[in-house]
Specification:
The structure is a homodimer of 140-residue chains. With 140 residues, chain A is of the alpha+beta class. The first copy, chain A, is built from 6 helices and 6 strands. Helices cover 44% and strands 17% of the residues of chain A. Strand 6 of chain A pairs antiparallel with strand 5 (121-122) of chain B, so a sheet runs across the interface. The structure holds a DNA duplex (25 and 25 nucleotides). Chains A, B: Keywords: DNA-binding, Repressor, Transcription, Transcription regulation, Zinc.
DNA sequence: TTTCGTGCAAATGGTTTGCACATGG
DNA sequence: CCATGTGCAAACCATTTGCACGAAA
């Protein structure tokens, strides 16, 4: 359900299996969508010495290997999440900052429309939609 | 068709009308969607001494006044564009980096769906959709 | 052993802040 | 005049890079 086949994938490319790489991948799975800094914290709780630089380099690698992706949820840092099974897009509330996920099905019609009319291949896993969530919209 | 009512809006708030504020607003209208840095360049061509700091502060102000908004088009800097008339969303190609606009109508069904099912009020002008554009997708 | 990965420190790029001077009202 | 704006320089924060040491194969 997690830890895809990191060892094999790495070996297949002649890359090395290291504790850091395993830990970062685990953290991405655990945290869902997390920034490099958040992942750094998570990893540090297990292995104190790991440097933030390594987090960045490892995320780049894992993304290259197709094991994780990142999305830009408004403001600063991108957030990373595991690739695979559960493709999902994000709804971001600009008032309270809450992030929720939506199933790709919701975007399917839009994706099809864009593909037909413009030949644009929508990357659903990368979609972040901004607006006001129910709680903020109703209350405020 | 441009230069809304900057002077009045400012006066209404007891703020001052300055050359810089006019220039930044004009630049936003001219450039469409531009990063702070691009706006800085544009403004400098007219008034050489304007500092990048002022661009940032002015953009924040103009956004606060409801005259401009910003969108995060993937990577680094946000891009600013005038608010009003032509609300539009963006399509960003992750291969070639091209940015194109789509009419809000395309997103209307999605927006309605989200509103009904989740009470989420989609901010269409803020939407950036990532994927592969026709040129890159077909060719590659 | 040999190459790849990591930690560390410094460089970078974008954005923000503090402060004194300039200027609009 | 007086308060707000601006320019400048320095501070910041996230991310990247260079280099020498440490570790996987």
């Amino acid at each position: 359900m997690s830890e895809t086949s990191l060892p094999e994938i790495l070996r297949a490319r002649g890359l090395r299996l290291t504790a850091q790489r395993q830990l970062v991948l685990e953290a991405v799975h655990e945290l869902g969508h997390a920034t490099p800094e958040q992942l750094h914290h998570a990893v540090r709780e297990v292995a104190a010495g790991v440097n933030i630089t390594t987090i960045y380099r490892t995320l780049e690698l894992l993304e290259d290997l197709g094991l994780v992706t990142h999305t830009h949820l408004s403001h600063g840092s991108p957030t990373y999440h595991p690739v695979g099974e559960d493709q999902h897009a994000h709804l971001v509330c600009r008032d309270c900052g809450a992030v929720s996920e939506i199933e790709p099905a919701v975007l399917a019609p839009l994706a099809n429309g864009l593909a037909e009319e413009r030949g644009f291949q929508l990357d659903i896993g990368h979609v972040a939609l901004f607006g006001t969530c129910g709680d903020c919209g109703g209350a405020k």
